[in-house]
Write a structure and sequence with these properties.
It is built from four helices and ten strands; from the N terminus they run E-H-E-E-H-E-E-E-E-E-H-E-E-H. The strands form two sheets. It has a seven-stranded mixed β-sheet with strand order 2-3-1-5-4-9-10, with helices on both faces. A three-stranded antiparallel β-sheet has the order 6-7-8, covered by helices on one side. The protein has 231 residues and is of the alpha+beta class. It is elongated and about 85 Å long. 33% of the residues lie in helices and 27% in strands. This is Peptide chain release factor H.
């Protein structure tokens, strides 16, 4: 199944921008669910004010992801009065929605895992039993290891070791993703304010559709032609 990782961020924006991130997140996840895609939130950084979000990172899975994300990726503008500074004159606030470059996802294959049976030991070095029931499992592509001695049954310990090793490898991958997110965060601190891909307005956060005026475009074209002839 195809997947992408998306970051919605206020960059260095003030609390108003963090409020916009929180509102966009709700709107975005609602569209994700309505489209039949699935998601999981990998990381969420709260803003200073209640109900605000500085940055959130989401993994989205499903078909036709590019078609869904195209109208979302870029700068998003909110037109409205500050919810924290009512007398603030600024009316335009900007946040960014970006795709995070992913590291290659590892599918743990059991054939790449080696299991070593070792003797379980108790307190003071005493043997719990006389057979080699403990299991050390090693995933060779990453070097991750786990040691399991929960049971007197070697077979049961091997089963537990396999599950824990998969969890450990998955956790390592998640940490790598978070590092990539942190690195890319540095590149998104300054949100581009030109040509927003989506515009919302008001405290009810309604989407504003851009109106294209062909009359205005024709008038501008005529003006450009006249200026060109004068030169």
């Amino acid at each position: 199944m195809k997947q992408k990782i998306i970051q919605i961020t206020a960059g260095r924006g003030p609390s108003e921008c963090c409020w916009v991130v929180a509102q966009v997140l709700k709107y975005f996840l609602n569209e994700v669910k309505n489209t039949g895609l699935t998601y999981s939130i990998l990381q969420r950084e709260k803003g200073f004010e209640n109900g605000t979000v500085q940055s959130v990172t989401i993994r989205i899975q499903g078909e036709k992801l590019d078609l869904f994300l195209t109208p979302w990726l870029g700068t998003i503008q909110w037109i409205g009065t500050s919810t924290f500074r009512k007398h603030h004159k600024r009316k335009n606030w900007f946040i960014g929605v970006y795709e995070v470059t992913q590291t290659k996802t590892i599918e743990v294959q059991e054939k790449e895992i080696s299991f070593q049976a070792i003797r379980s030991s108790g307190p003071g070095g005493q043997n719990v039993n006389k057979v080699n029931s403990a299991i050390r499992a090693t995933y060779h592509p990453t070097g991750d290891q786990v040691l399991v001695m929960d049971s007197r049954s070697q077979h049961q310990n091997k089963k537990i070791a396999l599950q824990r090793l998969k969890e450990k490898v998955n956790q390592s991958q998640l940490e790598n993703i978070k590092k990539v997110i942190t690195d890319q965060w540095e590149n998104h601190l300054h949100i581009e304010r030109g040509q927003p891909i989506r515009i919302f307005k008001g405290t009810d956060f309604k989407k504003q559709h851009k109106k294209h005026s062909y009359t205005t475009n024709r008038q501008q074209l005529k003006k450009d032609v006249r200026n060109e002839l004068k030169n």
